[in-house]
Amino acid sequence: MANILNIETSTEVCSVALTSDGMVLEHREDYEGRNHALLLSGFIEEMMQYATPRGIKIDAVAVSIGPGSYTGLRIGLSEAKGLCFGLDVPLIGIDTLKILVVATMFGNYIDENSYYVPMIDARRMEVFAGVYDSALQEVMPARPVILTHDSFSEYLGQGRKLVFVGNGAEKAANLIKHPDVVYIPGVKSAAVDMLALSEMAFRKGDFIDIAYSTPNYLKEFQATTPKKKI
């Protein structure tokens, strides 16, 4: 039985969950916006305040590793590394897109014949997306996608549904119209949905380097130049 502290900061949601043996023991979430820098440390402290008096020893820390918000990912990974150093426990990196797929399936949309297409909003008409089967096997590796009417057309018309989820799917809904496409609104990536993925990684000993690991941004950060005020 592993006690894992899960941290998810890759999108607008800031969340932390303490999990053990298939159960969520305690969790905190904020859905109000990008308040990660203000809230994350407090959420983690509350998880430790829950664990310590109950004799719960943290065995590992899991963190969403991307893709997603550059700032959010940096904040989450930095906090996770600090915890691992302080607690002397291993670090687990969890793919954010897979978290969205798990959240969808645990939300009772499970179809073994479907492909799941999690999308995270990027700039303009771009999303970070991947395609996965119901066993979380990659059909299309995660990558930046500029959405058009023909996006993901190679997976359509094959007798299976494409399930579009995530905050980037709203962009696709206005472009991709096909009877094989299912849009499920409101699916968000949160720490409670990391449970199955982080426990599986712990059992396999699938850890990442505490000192040198970096987020999976998928593309380089592009800073914009503020417009001059006249």
Describe the protein.
This protein is 26% helix and 27% strand. The chain is α/β, with parallel strands linked by helices and 230 residues long. The strands form two sheets. Strands 3-2-1-4-5 form a five-stranded mixed beta sheet, with helices on both faces. It has a five-stranded mixed beta sheet with strand order 8-7-6-9-10. Helix 2 (70-87) links the parallel strand 4 (60-66) and strand 5. Helix 1 (36-51) runs parallel beside helix 2.
Explain briefly what this protein structure is.
With 230 residues, this protein is α/β, with parallel strands linked by helices.
Key traits:
alpha/beta, five-stranded mixed beta sheet
What structural category arises from helix and sheet content?
A: alpha/beta
Radius of gyration: 18 Å
Q: What is the straight-line distance between the termini?
A: 62 Å
Main-sheet strand order equals: 3-2-1-4-5
Which of globular, elongated, flat, extended, rod-shaped describes the shape? globular
What summary fits the major beta sheet?
A: 5 strands, mixed
Strand content: 25-35%
User: What does the average pLDDT come to?
Assistant: 92
Multimerization status: single chain
Supply the number of helical segments.
5
Give, in order, the helices and strands.
EEEHEHEHEEEEHEH
Helix content: 25-40%
Number of extended strands: 10
Flag low-confidence runs. Answer: 221-230
Give the secondary structure arrangement, pairings included.
Layout: E1 3-8, E2 14-20, E3 23-30, H1 36-51, E4 60-66, H2 70-87, E5 91-95, H3 96-106, E6 115-121, E7 126-132, E8 138-146, E9 162-165, H4 169-173, E10 181-183, H5 195-204
Parallel strand pairs: 1-4, 4-5, 6-9, 9-10
Antiparallel strand pairs: 1-2, 2-3, 6-7, 7-8
Helix pairs in contact: 1-2
